[in-house]
Amino acid sequence: MITIVGLGPGDPELITRRAWTLLTTAPEVWVRTCHHPAVGAVAAQTQVHSYDHLYEQHHDFAAVYQAIAADVIARATTGDVIYAVPGDPSVAEATTLAIRTLAEAQGLPVAILPGVSFLEPTFAALAEDPIQGVQMVDAATLAASHHPPGSTQQGMLVVQLYSRFLAGDVKLTLMNAYPDDHTVTLVSGAGTDEVRLHAMPLYELDRHERFDDLTTLWIPALSRPSTYDTLQEIIAHLRAPEGCPWDREQTHESLRPYLLEESYEALEAIDQNDATALAEELGDVLIQVALHVQIATEEGEFKLYDVISHVVEKLVRRHPHVFGDISVADSAEVTRNWEAIKQAERKQAGGEQKKAKKNMLDGIPRALPALAQAQTTVGRLARVGYPLPALQAMDESKLGRALLKLVEQAEAAGLDAESALRRVTGELRTQLDEAETEANLLGSALLDLPTQRQRELWERRLASKD
Question: Hey, which of 143, 260, 307, 355 has its CA 20 to 30 A from 404?
Answer without folding.
Answer: 260
